[in-house]
């Protein structure tokens, strides 16, 4: 665990290169375009039992709120899963209130301490809360399965943030608006 | 207009009738040209405004458009055009389709599983799609109206600079010719009369 790249909640080319460069050292040199998650999983597989690895492999941001994780025997996964589930509910409430035209009061109607901003700023805030939650949950876990799970979740959070690419995003926006 | 014309009274009458028609047509084409110029100007202004609006939306969206790079959402499935509402109109003889509205299929969003940014994205995509559709209609109409304007201007100029002057000139030529013929006939008649009188005196 200690030899894996230290993850901080930062965006930027340098940070991405640093994390990828360190992780790449663990990768099979034959596989050129291997993803960071795949490298991490490949490394984790060496140390985890098959059932633990199966669970580790299932960890995804888009499904972390599912029942499998909410009822997990691992306290970290259980707590984070429930937190994301709660967060998603709050976001849904916020979106419903915004759609009803209660945009200004939408945030007040939910329990979200969200600072109103543009969609990118709001999304980063949501990621930051999840990151902070993982930081809180990491206390007492240094080299166990839960520490590895936290590491993967943090990496997934960063990868999601890093996938927010202005040029690619504008290409998507431009092509969909110009399409007949 | 034919190069050779028949120098007779019938042709003269026909040319005079033609000139009358030409003179009636000139103000019609002038009015048409005027009307089309006004509409073209209005549409050009509308196009400028639409382009500015599109540019402004692009600039505003660029501040947060990075989120759209996320592969979580397939907008082609979410933002679908149901129908485009347009009204047929006729301006100075040109049939155009005037854009009224663009109706999108209702968005069935999963507010729990889709990201928060999706709502703003759908809204701005729909707005921008409306702008582009409106722009497309306006540009098509502008092309049609400009074409008609060129034609009206060409017709007006042809009447004023070719047809009317040529017809007036031909009328003048025929009138001079017919006048000469008439004078010649009178002269001949007088000569014949004089010869007859001289013959009678000598007998």
Order of helices and strands of chain A: HHHHHHHHH
What count of domains describes the coordinates of chain B?
Answer: 1
Rg of chain A, please?
18 Å
Quaternary organization: heterodimer
Question: Strand share of the residues of chain B?
Answer: 5-15%
List strands and helices in order, with pairings.
The complex is a heterodimer of chains A (180) and B (203).
Chain A: H1 13-24, H2 36-45, H3 50-58, H4 67-70, H5 75-99, H6 103-109, H7 119-137, H8 145-162, H9 166-178
Helix pairs in contact in A: 2-8, 5-6, 5-7, 7-8
Chain B: H1 9-62, H2 75-78, E1 81-91, E2 94-104, H3 117-202
Antiparallel strand pairs in B: 1-2
Task: Please supply descriptive tags for the structure shown above.
heterodimer, A: 180 residues, mainly alpha, 9 helices, 65% helix, 0% strand, globular, B: 203 residues, Helix Hairpins, two-stranded antiparallel sheet, 3 helices, rod-shaped
Give an account of the 3D structure:
The complex is a heterodimer of chains A (180) and B (203). Chain A has helices at residues 13-24, 36-45, 50-58, 67-70, 75-99, 103-109, 119-137, 145-162, 166-178. Chain A is mainly α and 180 residues long. Chain A has one domain (13-163). The model of chain A has no long low-confidence stretch (mean pLDDT 87). Chain B has 203 residues and is mainly α. In chain B, strand 1 (81-91) and strand 2 form a beta hairpin. Chain B is rod-shaped. The A-B interface holds A 62, 88-89, 91-92, 94-96, 98-99, 118-123, 126, 160, 163-166, 168-170, 172-174, 176-179 and B 58, 61-72, 75-76, 79, 111-113, 115-117, 119-121, 124-125, 128-129, 132.
């Amino acid at each position: 665990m200690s030899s894996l790249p230290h993850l901080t909640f930062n965006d930027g080319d340098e940070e991405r290169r640093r994390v990828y460069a360190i992780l790449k050292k663990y990768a099979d040199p034959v596989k050129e375009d291997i993803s960071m998650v795949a490298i991490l999983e490949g490394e984790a597989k060496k140390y985890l039992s098959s059932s633990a690895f199966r669970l580790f492999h299932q960890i995804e941001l888009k499904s972390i709120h599912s029942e499998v994780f909410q009822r997990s025997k691992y306290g970290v996964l259980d707590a984070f899963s429930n937190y994301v589930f709660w967060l998603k509910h709050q976001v849904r409430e916020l979106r419903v209130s915004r759609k009803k035209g209660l945009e200004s009061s939408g945030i007040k109607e939910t329990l979200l301490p969200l600072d109103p901003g543009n969609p990118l700023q709001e999304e980063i805030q949501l990621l930051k809360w999840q990151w902070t939650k993982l930081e809180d949950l990491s206390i007492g876990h240094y080299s166990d399965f839960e520490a590895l799970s936290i590491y993967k979740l943090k990496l997934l959070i960063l990868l999601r943030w890093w996938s927010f690419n202005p040029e690619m995003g504008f290409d998507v926006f431009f092509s969909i608006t110009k399409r007949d | 207009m034919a190069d050779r014309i028949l120098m007779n009274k019938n042709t003269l009458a026909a040319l005079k009738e033609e000139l009358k028609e030409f003179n009636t047509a000139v103000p019609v084409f002038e009015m048409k040209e005027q009307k089309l110029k006004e509409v073209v100007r209005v549409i050009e202004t509308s196009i400028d405004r639409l382009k500015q609006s599109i540019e402004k939306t692009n600039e505003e969206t660029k501040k947060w458009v990075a989120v759209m790079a996320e592969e979580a959402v397939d907008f082609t499935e979410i933002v679908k055009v149901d129908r485009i509402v347009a009204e047929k109109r006729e301006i100075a003889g040109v049939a155009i389709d005037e854009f009224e509205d663009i109706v999108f299929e209702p968005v069935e969003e999963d507010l729990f599983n889709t990201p928060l940014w999706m709502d703003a994205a759908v809204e701005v995509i729909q707005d921008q799609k409306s702008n582009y559709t409106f722009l497309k209609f306006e540009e098509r109409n502008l092309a049609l109206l400009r074409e008609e304007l060129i034609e009206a201007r060409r017709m007006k100029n042809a009447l004023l600079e070719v047809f009317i002057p040529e017809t007036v000139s031909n009328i003048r030529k025929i009138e001079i010719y017919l006048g000469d013929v008439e004078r010649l006939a009178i002269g001949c008649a007088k000569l014949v009369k004089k010869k007859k009188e001289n013959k009678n005196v000598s007998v």
